[in-house]
Specification:
By secondary structure, the protein is an alpha+beta fold. It is rod-shaped, with a radius of gyration of 42 Å. Helix 1 runs antiparallel to helix 2. Helices cover 46% and strands 13% of the residues. The chain has helices at 2-13, 21-63, and strands at residues 93-98, 101-106, 113-116. It has two helices and three strands. The protein has two domains: 2-63, no CATH class; 79-116, no CATH class. The model has no long low-confidence stretch (mean pLDDT 82). Strands 1-2-3 form a three-stranded antiparallel sheet, with no helix packed on it. Keywords: Membrane, Signal, Transmembrane, Transmembrane helix. Residues 1-19 form the signal peptide. GO terms for molecular function: ATP binding.
Length: 120
């Protein structure tokens, strides 16, 4: 941009800078073509750099270890359990604290433990 402008002004303002108009036109045309060629080379280099970065990222993603399954067989003791019992089938329950947790049993029977809270 600025180089071509300066060259054009030099051709117009400086007397005897070129022998004729054809030489000035040819020099400006060559300067424009060089600028366009350099711009295309920079654009090609930037595109190649983006492609190399994309290939490098793919290579890094492929090298990542595979994720494990969402649930393991050893997870069973840690899963939440939902129990749905109709009110008509409920019996009288006793609750008591045992070793930092709550324990539910049928009233009058301390041996039949229905539910025991795991300690935190």
């Amino acid at each position: 941009g600025i180089f071509v402008t300066c060259l054009s002004l030099m051709v117009v303002w400086v007397p005897n800078a070129t022998s004729d108009v054809g030489t000035a036109n040819l020099s400006l045309l060559l300067v424009f073509s060089i600028i366009v060629m350099v711009e295309n080379m920079v654009n090609s280099g930037a595109s190649a750099q983006y492609q190399i970065i994309a290939m490098n990222r793919l290579h890094e993603y492929i090298a990542l270890p595979e994720e494990g399954p969402e649930e393991l067989p050893s997870d069973a003791p840690y899963l939440n359990h939902n129990i749905r019992i109709p009110r008509s089938e409920l019996v009288k329950l006793d609750s008591q604290e045992v070793s930092g947790g709550l324990q539910l049993s049928i009233r009058g029977s301390r041996l039949d433990v229905l539910l025991r809270q795991a300690p935190d």
